[in-house]
Protein backbone atom coordinates (compact mmCIF):
# COMPACT_ATOMS: atom_id res chain seq x y z
CA UNK A 1 0.00 0.00 0.00
CA UNK A 2 1.14 3.49 -0.81
CA UNK A 3 0.85 6.57 1.37
CA UNK A 4 -0.83 9.56 -0.24
CA UNK A 5 -1.03 13.20 0.74
CA UNK A 6 -4.10 15.27 0.00
CA UNK A 7 -5.46 18.74 0.66
CA UNK A 8 -8.38 21.04 -0.02
CA UNK A 9 -7.92 23.96 -2.43
CA UNK A 10 -6.92 26.66 0.06
CA UNK A 11 -4.58 24.28 1.88
CA UNK A 12 -6.18 24.65 5.29
CA UNK A 13 -7.11 20.98 5.36
CA UNK A 14 -4.30 18.48 4.83
CA UNK A 15 -4.67 14.75 5.25
CA UNK A 16 -2.85 11.52 4.50
CA UNK A 17 -3.94 7.97 3.93
CA UNK A 18 -2.65 4.55 2.95
CA UNK A 19 -4.54 2.49 0.42
CA UNK A 20 -4.24 0.41 -2.71
CA UNK A 21 -5.61 2.57 -5.53
CA UNK A 22 -7.12 0.34 -8.23
CA UNK A 23 -10.13 2.36 -9.30
CA UNK A 24 -12.20 5.49 -8.91
CA UNK A 25 -15.72 5.29 -7.57
CA UNK A 26 -18.40 7.42 -9.18
CA UNK A 27 -21.70 7.55 -7.33
CA UNK A 28 -25.04 8.60 -8.83
CA UNK A 29 -26.69 9.89 -5.63
CA UNK A 30 -28.01 13.45 -5.60
CA UNK A 31 -25.06 14.78 -3.57
CA UNK A 32 -22.20 13.07 -5.45
CA UNK A 33 -23.72 14.16 -8.74
CA UNK A 34 -23.82 17.79 -7.67
CA UNK A 35 -20.32 17.84 -6.21
CA UNK A 36 -19.00 15.99 -9.27
CA UNK A 37 -17.26 13.49 -7.01
CA UNK A 38 -14.77 10.86 -8.12
CA UNK A 39 -13.64 8.97 -5.06
CA UNK A 40 -11.07 6.58 -3.70
CA UNK A 41 -11.94 4.01 -1.07
CA UNK A 42 -9.94 4.31 2.15
CA UNK A 43 -10.27 2.45 5.43
CA UNK A 44 -11.22 4.74 8.30
CA UNK A 45 -8.19 3.77 10.39
CA UNK A 46 -5.86 4.42 7.41
CA UNK A 47 -6.84 8.10 7.10
CA UNK A 48 -5.19 10.77 9.19
CA UNK A 49 -5.95 14.49 9.28
CA UNK A 50 -2.62 16.35 9.38
CA UNK A 51 -3.91 19.90 9.77
CA UNK A 52 -6.99 22.08 9.50
CA UNK A 53 -9.46 19.78 11.20
CA UNK A 54 -11.16 22.90 12.61
CA UNK A 55 -11.75 24.12 9.02
CA UNK A 56 -13.81 21.05 8.19
CA UNK A 57 -17.54 21.19 8.50
CA UNK A 58 -20.01 18.36 8.46
CA UNK A 59 -22.92 18.04 6.07
CA UNK A 60 -25.58 15.41 6.63
CA UNK A 61 -28.83 14.72 4.82
CA UNK A 62 -31.46 12.04 4.28
CA UNK A 63 -30.77 9.28 6.84
CA UNK A 64 -27.95 11.34 8.46
CA UNK A 65 -25.82 8.20 8.56
CA UNK A 66 -23.09 9.31 6.16
CA UNK A 67 -20.78 12.14 7.28
CA UNK A 68 -19.77 14.48 4.46
CA UNK A 69 -16.91 16.87 5.16
CA UNK A 70 -15.82 19.96 3.30
CA UNK A 71 -13.55 22.95 3.92
CA UNK A 72 -15.38 25.99 5.27
CA UNK A 73 -12.90 28.37 3.63
CA UNK A 74 -12.66 27.08 0.03
CA UNK A 75 -15.71 24.83 -0.04
CA UNK A 76 -13.91 21.78 -1.39
CA UNK A 77 -15.24 18.34 -0.52
CA UNK A 78 -12.39 16.34 1.03
CA UNK A 79 -13.84 13.01 2.18
CA UNK A 80 -16.87 11.38 3.71
CA UNK A 81 -17.65 8.50 6.01
CA UNK A 82 -19.88 6.07 4.16
CA UNK A 83 -23.42 5.31 5.11
CA UNK A 84 -23.37 1.61 4.24
CA UNK A 85 -20.04 0.91 5.96
CA UNK A 86 -18.87 3.55 8.50
CA UNK A 87 -15.43 1.89 8.61
CA UNK A 88 -14.85 3.10 5.06
CA UNK A 89 -14.26 6.62 3.78
CA UNK A 90 -14.70 7.97 0.29
CA UNK A 91 -11.90 10.43 -0.52
CA UNK A 92 -12.08 13.10 -3.23
CA UNK A 93 -9.59 11.75 -5.78
CA UNK A 94 -8.89 15.25 -7.13
CA UNK A 95 -7.55 16.36 -3.72
CA UNK A 96 -4.77 13.77 -3.83
CA UNK A 97 -1.21 14.81 -4.70
CA UNK A 98 0.49 13.00 -7.57
CA UNK A 99 -2.43 10.77 -8.46
CA UNK A 100 -3.03 10.25 -12.19
CA UNK A 101 -6.81 10.30 -11.97
CA UNK A 102 -7.35 10.03 -15.73
CA UNK A 103 -5.43 6.73 -15.84
CA UNK A 104 -7.71 4.92 -13.40
CA UNK A 105 -10.76 2.85 -14.30
CA UNK A 106 -14.08 4.14 -12.99
CA UNK A 107 -16.51 1.95 -11.09
CA UNK A 108 -20.08 3.18 -10.99
CA UNK A 109 -21.86 2.92 -7.67
CA UNK A 110 -25.63 3.06 -7.50
CA UNK A 111 -25.94 5.25 -4.41
CA UNK A 112 -29.22 6.69 -5.67
CA UNK A 113 -31.22 3.49 -5.15
CA UNK A 114 -29.41 2.06 -2.13
ZN1 LIG B 1 -9.88 24.83 1.98
From TrEMBL:
Domain CENP-V/GFA: from-to ranges: 4-114
Keywords of the record: Metal-binding, Zinc
Superkingdom of origin organism: Bacteria
Keyword Hydrolase applies: no
GO molecular function: carbon-sulfur lyase activity; metal ion binding
PANTHER family: CENP-V_GFA DOMAIN-CONTAINING PROTEIN, CENTROMERE PROTEIN V
Family membership noted in the UniProt record: Belongs to the Gfa family.
Name of the protein: Uncharacterized conserved protein
Organism for this UniProt entry: Paraburkholderia susongensis
Amino acid sequence: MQRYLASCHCGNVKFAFCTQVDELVMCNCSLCTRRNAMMLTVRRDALQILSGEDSLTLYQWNTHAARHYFCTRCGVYTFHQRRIDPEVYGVNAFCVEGLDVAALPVRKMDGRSR
